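Chapter summary example.
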Amino acid sequence: MRRLIAGGALLAVLGAFAAPCAGFDQVLEVGDPPLVLAGQELAVEEGRLRLFGRACLGSADVELFTDTVTLDPKTGRLEAPAVRGRVGAWTVEAERLVGEDGALVLVEAVFVRGEIHLQTEAAEARGETVQLTQVFVETPEVRFRAARGTVAGDTFRAEGIWATPCVYGDDLRVLGDAATFNTRTGRLVLMEARVDVYGRTLFRPERLELDPARPLTLSFPFRLAYGRGWTLGVEDFPLPLPGEAFGRWSTSLTLLAEGLGARPLGPADPGVTTFRFGVSAQEAGRRFAFQLQREERRAWDGRLTTTTVPEAEFTAPGFRFALEPTQAEARIDPRLRFGAATVRPFLRVAQEAERAGLTLGVEARYPFEDLARADGLGFSLEPWTLGAAYPDQADAPGYAAFGVNAALRYTGAWQGRLEYRRAYPVGVARFGYEWRGEVERLDLVARRAGISLTGRFSRRQVPDLAARALAREDLEVSLALGYADRGWRVEAQGDQVERWRPGRAALTAVERTYTLRLERGWRVEARYLEATGLDPEVTPFRRELQLAYRPAPPRGRSDLTFAPSVGYDFLRHGVSRAGVEVAYADECFVWKLAYQAVLLPQGAEEAVGSRVRFGVELR
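The structure predicted for these 619 residues follows.
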């Protein structure tokens, strides 16, 4: 019997009960370390001890309840039907418990820990490990089966793996010989795996990792669309390297053609075809990207002009080099910490538009956290300052800015946060990197019993960097009120942007957007946009109503949904845009086909035309 009790004590995993199986009339403590057997009543039947009425088995961190516990002192065999309770951090239910030959076995057991559900035909505790057979595990991210495995602490080492992220079925499945599963975090790592899609093997990764803290997002790299010509190719197509985990690839390829077959629509509207070739790689905070873009413009009279633009970027902690169509930059900006203070000196060589030169500067911040804290109220303050000089131009004045960020938080019957940011620039910067144009900002967030209120006010100065003067000042105001109850949510939001000449000498444009949303799984959205400007070429007049419907996420093993949208122009009295997205969801994937047509353009960024887009994503 000692062998049995020693094996039973090894069910302990995490946590501790000060007094397992407390409150019972009959209590037996046997073994070393002790195992407690308790019940409301005790009887001896044919040489066997029987605890019944309501019975319990417990140790330092195990507490299992049942109707009857039977113990044979001669053979050490222990039996208990329909047990339920706790084993460490797990909630457990099992058809029966059997103890014999130094082992305790839970038969047809279900273990639950947070959102992790583990089912097994048998969980056998013997020695320092727990052996599991025919295991099925389900988490919000993945379902997997294992032929057998061993649990030690928080680690489940499994063999004979079948896993799938599909909601239903296994159209996308992963097979592997071995895997490790962290029962606390839900992280699953498979080695030497095989990835099957619709029964066909597409990949054989050396390592595949599914981690709830880092969800695996598999974007569809193939592009197929039609607008002003065809879009065809691959974008961010993964290039796996040896030893990389599946879906965690660091290198990608882009080979894309946009506007194939595009024809000119007029003398001022040429047909544009763009070819892009690019490679990017990133690892441990470093990123390298190179892209070559070739643009062909076919004019109304048939003339063809081509432009080739190289782009490159290398980013590492404290360093960046970039070559882009409108600017080139090399920058060193390490972040230095002195206690709570952060100091960021920077040295930058750049060309922006027609300006080129050297910038030498420093930025410093010092946060004061929880300056006042009482009854759920917290206050923090962060003053900052920045200075920049331009050594390559001795007569060029420098640039400086200083300011403060303040935040007031409240947590109690309701939750709220009020943030205020104020900046005081001295002069106008030479480059956009060091410019701090948002001189004032106020943010408000408040929530209570399903009601939410958010607001924002911002005052931003927009510079003419070439002239080192202010070009305009923008005032932005946003207010949103929402209410949610019993699965319903309604939200009303208003946004306004005013554009002023420097010093607010004259108002040049006003843009307003009013939005109303209604959600209950599905979402209906109505948006009204209006714009008025002194210069219609800069800010075209606009009065447009947009309506859109987004269906609820797919349900069942298959689902077909439609997401229509339409716009109406009140100035020209006609439909401005129309579109629909058709989505078919099978057991694992969502296949989407979308069509969008612009009939009455609302600005220079839009043109009359239509676009068809195809895509697929993991359900």
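To summarize the output: The radius of gyration is 33 Å.
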